Each structure stands twice: as C-alpha cells, then as structure tokens.
Automatic annotation (TrEMBL):
Lineage of producing organism: Bacteria, Bacillati, Actinomycetota, Actinomycetes, Propionibacteriales
Keyword DNA repair: no
The protein's name in its UniProt record: Uronate isomerase
EC number: 5.3.1.12
Organism: Kribbella aluminosa
EC main group: isomerase
Keyword Zinc attached: no
One MF annotation (Gene Ontology) recorded for this entry: glucuronate isomerase activity
Family matches, as Pfam families: UxaC (PF02614)
UniProt record similarity statement: Belongs to the metallo-dependent hydrolases superfamily. Uronate isomerase family.
Catalytic reaction annotation: D-glucuronate = D-fructuronate
Alphabetical keyword list: Isomerase
NCBIfam families according to UniProt: PRK02925.1
InterPro entries assigned to the protein according to its UniProt record, in alphabetical order: Metal_Hydrolase, Uronate_isomerase
C-alpha cells in the first residue's frame, strides 16, 4: 500500500515540557499574513495569471534545492528539465515527475522534504507520498487541481494570505509587467532593484547591458558619471512601481569606495573589455558603497547576501547557463569589509541595511555585534542552505543574546518556488515558537512576552524593516 501523507500537527515543535507552550505560541502566529519581501518568484506568473503548466514545471524544475539533490545522486540535469543554452528539448514533464518521485527518499532529513510535504498535503490535497508506484497517479491528481480557478497564481495570493510579495528585477528590466500588475492588483506585488549584472564589470555582455541601462534611463552611460546618473534614474522608476528594497548578491561584503578618477578609469577600461580582475573586484566593492549612498538618499532598504561562489561547475554553466543551483558558500568576512560603509551610514537616518549570510560562523562573532550597535543594521533571516529547522534554531541561539529580537528583519522567504512560500513561513514560525517556548519553561521569558516576540518575528519586524521608511 502507498504510504499515507499526513504531516504531524506538532512537526518541528520541541519535545518535552516546552511543547504545550510552543503550541500556544505557534497558534498565535500561524494565521498572520505573510510578508514576502525577499522573493524571487517570476513576475510573469502574476502578470499573466495563466494556469500552471504541470507538476514538474511547478514543483521540480524551478526549485534548486530539489534539482541539486537529484543531480548529487547522479541524475542528469537534462532528465530534470533544466533549460539548455542551446534550446534543445528537455525531458517531458511526466518523465521529470517520475524521476523526482522515484527518488523521493533522497529528501529525508532535508528542509525540502518538510516544505514539499506541506505543499502536497495542505496546498494540493494529496494523501499519499510520492514514489515510483504513485508518480503517475499523483501527476494526474495535481493536473486536475492546477486546472481549477482557485489555483491560478493571483488566487493563491489570497489563499496563502500573502499581504505583499516582492519579485527580483534587474536594473535593466523595463517594469512593463509590474505596470500591468499595478493596475490589476495595486500594492500587492512590487519589484526589488537588483543591479548585480551592471555592478560587475567583468561579466559577459556588460558593455551591452550598460548601454541598455542608458537607453531605459535616457542617460548617456559612456561615462562613469552617466552610469551613476542612470542607476539613480532607474531606482526612481522602481520606487514609482512600488519597490521597497534593493538586493545585492556579491561574492564578498567589501564596500570600499574608490576615488572618482580611479572608478572612472576602471569603468572606461571595462567598456572596452580591458578590465583587470582585481579592478573588477574593486569596482564591485566601490559600487556597494555607492548603492548605500543611493539608499541613504532614496530610502530603498539595502539587502546584502554575500558569500556564494556562483556557477561552481563550469560544465553545468556552459550547458545550462547561470543560476541553476550549482552555487557553493564560501567563508565571508563582514566586520572590516563593511566598516567604510557603516562609518558613514551606520547611524544615518533613513538608511537600512539587511545582512544575510550562508556562513554561520559569523553569526555570533560579527553579525550579531554589528546589528547590536549600528541602528541601520538588521539581520536577515537564515538564508538558502541555512533556512532549515536546525539552521534557523542555531541562528536564534547564536545572535539573540547579543542583538536581541528587535534587530532582526523578521522572516522573509527567499524562493523561486511559489507553492513553498506558506510552508517556509510556517516552518519559521514553528522554530521560533519552539525557541521562545524553551525560554519560557526555563523562566527566562514570560509567556506574554514570548507571544509578543513571536508576532514581531513573524510579521511586525518585516513590516517595520521594509515598509516603515517609505
């Protein structure tokens, strides 16, 4: 018989005397609206509101947690439907789904298993676990569900109780889809300004991107001054479209300004494809400082999540392109790297910097002390490889005693996988409920205070971090 799919009501809550307290705390937050302000869901889903195509397209192909685990066990990326640079046909959706179901056991112990079980049972109404034997049956059940009007992307905003969701948009995005959406769903889906592609001058096609930036901003970007002017102009357009934040995924946290002459020299060399690697790295750090200057001017929250070596596997990059999940964390230093930026803006009114990391060795040594002294700094929720039950628990244990609860950004999910959003928020709320419950039973926190903090972590802090200064 197929194994029944029944997520336990106490999943991820602590055992022992803290469980009853954790239940009460979780009950107080589980129905709060979701603020999804660090998201990567494709804006096209909401702009077109077209039905989802099939289970593979929805649940497997866009989820890097899923695909990287399967690839790690020898499954070819082609079998998982990853789009190829050369446009050659990928696997058929049902075959992708069968491959995923046959390897369902690989996700035991991972947060992906938790999120997917939540999605299957509570969103899609499935009652049995995926397996080679149940794959076709589940595929057909999901296809029926996806054809229902209440499973259109916009309808799910209401079902998931999403109050506000952000997408991630390049500086060269014309925001046309956001303009369409603003008329249909005003104030519900907003862009986030991500200028990484134009800040890294050694990337392929950079001169063409900068030219495109200039065209959109109606500014001559053949000079460094024009480049800065164009970025400010694009930021204004993003703000008009509802943007609340910027997003920066640099390799390091270095934010060290260059002299104007040096920055202009590197910029000019890059336009001719003659930039040196060390100059490109210095310019990227310089631009982080410039983006902080701009955020201090226009109020966009600056989000920084360094420390990931992108496209680690050159063969995967060559065949399937960037952002296919073959990215690996590296050790990251914040204290010295951010000192120039924080010397100038750490106490500045209207400036906010949210720091994320995938290097948990810096939680108590660097991030908590930085957030515990600079009013501008908030700590982002555990991100990527650390947005797991134990990862989130370690985060609370390592940062709270120095930074407290109110120097946090609150939980904001970081995902392209739309259906996983409520599962991710639910897991974060359960972990926080357990952490707070343990403090209550140890008589380190009153239960009334724990209930107040739980609401702050689930909702209030995200609202204050991202929405209070606009």
């Amino acid at each position: 018989m197929p194994k029944a799919l029944q997520p336990h009501p106490d999943r991820a809550l602590p055992a022992g005397p803290a469980r009853d307290v954790a239940r009460r705390i979780h009950d107080s937050t589980k129905d709060l609206p979701l603020l999804c302000l660090h998201g990567h869901v494709d804006i096209g889903l909401f702009a077109t509101d077209a039905p989802f195509g099939d289970p593979a397209e929805l649940l497997v192909v866009p989820d890097h947690y899923v695909t990287r685990m399967l690839v790690s066990q020898g499954v070819s990326p082609g079998k998982l439907g990853l789009p190829r640079r050369d446009g050659k046909q990928s696997a058929e959706p049902r075959e992708i789904w069968r491959e995923f179901c046959a390897n369902w056991h690989l996700f035991l112990g991972t947060p992906s298993r938790y999120w997917l079980e939540h999605e299957f049972a509570e969103v899609l109404g499935l009652t049995v676990h995926p397996s080679a034997e149940t794959a076709d049956e589940l595929y057909d059940q999901i296809m029926v569900r996806l054809a229902e009007p209440e499973f259109r992307p916009r309808a799910l905003l209401d079902r998931f109780n999403i109050e506000l969701i952000s997408t991630t948009d390049a500086a060269t995005d014309d925001l046309a889809q956001h303009a369409k959406l603003a008329a249909d769903l005003p104030g519900r889906v907003v862009p986030t300004f991500r200028p990484d592609a134009v800040a890294h001058v050694d990337r392929d096609g950079w001169p063409q991107l900068v030219a495109q930036l200039g065209e959109l901003a109606d500014v001559d970007t053949t000079t460094y001054d024009g480049f800065l002017q164009a970025l400010r102009q694009r930021r204004r357009k993003f703000i008009e479209a509802g943007a609340r934040a910027t997003d920066h995924g640099h390799l390091t946290a270095a934010a060290v300004p260059l002299g104007d002459d040096q920055a202009a020299r590197i910029y000019a060399a890059a336009l001719h494809n003659e930039v040196k690697p060390e100059d490109a790295a210095a310019f990227a750090g310089h631009m982080l400082y410039q983006f902080a200057t701009m955020s201090a001017e226009d109020g966009l929250v600056m989000q920084l999540h360094p420390g990931v070596l992108r496209d680690h596997d050159p063969a995967i990059f060559a065949t399937y392109g960037p952002d296919q999940g073959h990215d690996i964390p590296v050790a990251t230093e914040f204290t010295r790297s951010l000192r120039p930026l924080l010397e100038r803006f750490g106490h500045a009114d209207g400036f906010r910097l949210v720091l994320f990391t995938v290097d948990e060795t810096v939680y108590s040594r660097e991030l908590a002390p930085l957030a515990g002294v600079y009013p501008a700094v908030r700590l982002g929720a555990p991100w990527w490889f650390l947005d797991s039950p134990d990862g989130m628990r370690r985060f609370r244990e390592l940062v709270t005693e120095t930074a407290g609860f109110y120097n946090m950004s609150g939980f904001v999910d970081d995902t392209r996988a739309y259906l996983s959003i409520p599962a991710r928020h639910d897991l974060a709320r359960r972990i926080d409920a357990g952490y707070l419950a343990n403090l209550v039973v140890q008589h380190r926190l009153d239960e009334d205070d724990a209930l107040q903090v739980a609401k702050a972590l689930a909702y209030d802090l995200a609202k204050d971090t991202y929405l209070s200064n606009r």
